[in-house]
Amino acid sequence: MRASILKQNKYLIASVQGSMSDADLVQLREELAADVRRHRSTGVIVDVTMLDVMDSFAVRTLRGIAQMVKLLGAECIVVGIQPEVAFSMVQLGLTLEGTMTALDLEDGLDALEAHAGAGTSSP
Amino acid sequence: MARDALGGSDITEQELLRRKDFLEFREDDIANLAGINDVARRYADSVIDDFYRHLLSFEETRTFFRDPQVLERVKSAQQEYFLRLTQGNYDLAYAHNRLNIGAIHERIGLPIKTYLGMYNYYLRAVASRLDEAYRDRPQGAWSAFMSLMKLTFLDMGLAIDTYLNSRERTIREQQEAIQELPTPVLPFREGMLLVPIIGLIDSQRARALTEQLLGAVRDNRAKIVVMDITGVQAVDSKVGNHLVQTVEAARLMGATVILAGVSPAIAQTMVTLGIDLGRMTTVGDLQSGIERGEELLGYTVTRTRAKSHSG
What we know:
By secondary structure, chain A is of the alpha/beta class. Chain A has one domain (4-113): Transcription Regulator spoIIAA (2-Layer Sandwich). Chain A has four helices and five strands, in the order E-E-H-E-H-E-H-E-H. A five-stranded mixed sheet of chain A has the order 1-2-3-4-5, sandwiched between helices. In chain A, a hairpin with a 2-residue loop joins strand 1 (4-8) and strand 2. In chain A, helix 1 (22-39) packs parallel to helix 2. Chain B has two domains: 3-176, Globin-like (Orthogonal Bundle); 186-297, STAS domain (Transcription Regulator spoIIAA, 2-Layer Sandwich), CATH 3.30.750. Chain B is 63% helix and 9% strand. Chain B contains twelve helices and five strands. Chain B has helices at residues 13-22, 27-35, 37-56, 59-62, 68-84, 92-107, 112-133, 138-179, 203-220, 237-252, 264-273, 286-297; strands at residues 186-189, 192-198, 224-231, 256-260, 281-283. Chain B is elongated. The model of chain B is unreliable at 1-7 (pLDDT under 50). Chain A binds chain B through residues 78-79, 81-87, 89-91, 95-96, 101-104, 107-108, 111, 121-123, and chain B through 191, 210-211, 214-215, 217-218, 221-223, 245-246, 248-255, 297-298.
């Protein structure tokens, strides 16, 4: 199942579905790269709320997406990691270091706004 | 017989045999003891009377026998106990009986030193009676006394076990009580949780705590969690790592955990065990934790009224 990528002003929102294969994830990475370029986006939100399992490949791909987005001059934030997923990830040593995270889409958008406003971060 | 009546003590056939073996309590001892059954019967009343006279002559022991009714009851129990020593059949039922007697004394709070003193008095009282009864053949008195001593030490071992088991049970119950202390997750400000941890953390409690904390982060949409471990005495490597993992997991959910109240002892343990606290925000006490959290969330707290005594 493919992920849907929505455009919201300067941001792209990619919703990862529960039943995504490795190939789907790789394809998501490629599509995001192209879309950031095409839409001149400044931020990408990857929403993984629907994921109940996160294996090492998925984590590696997510980190790849984040690094790639950064290289293209935008910010990437992963949102919606569920408690059980978060803990099992940490136990496997998959901590998504250097990648921004937020609780959900709303917080993710706030975080990107705050980041864009550089320094004027206040609730 | 319920195990509870024995203060959690129980004894198996093998264990009883091992104990007898160690004391070298053999068939001839049983015969020796049976041989003085008549003497015991004859002198039982006088031994018991002397025994209680002795007990009542000390303030410390007198307090246990203030009630004359109680005194009468324990006296007859004591007589039964005394006669039982020479009645043979030192089997599992005998051991249970002894454990039970020990448990009763433990429950009324009779100190072990008094308990041992009572055994000592018994041995001496019986020795002098045996001396009297076996005036013509002291060898018989001597071997009977030796056998009695072995049996008495068997009894003493069992009695002390009930004391120790009862204490151990108390310690265990208290430990369980500490471990079952609930860990509240308190919403402190919008987007900020307070988690005070008190008592012992073992792996099981740490796991429950993680679940609770991560769930609370999601439910309260928390961005900051102040975890206060002032009330935690010790952390082992497993629990320490677990705490670090919890902090990392919270970060994956977009929340920052501030660890407050790390005691010098825990700090040392963490460093010695090589637990990586590098990515963790730690502060000295709860107040600093709350202040740091408010700062990160952009809150400022202002006093609206000056102190009544300015200065």
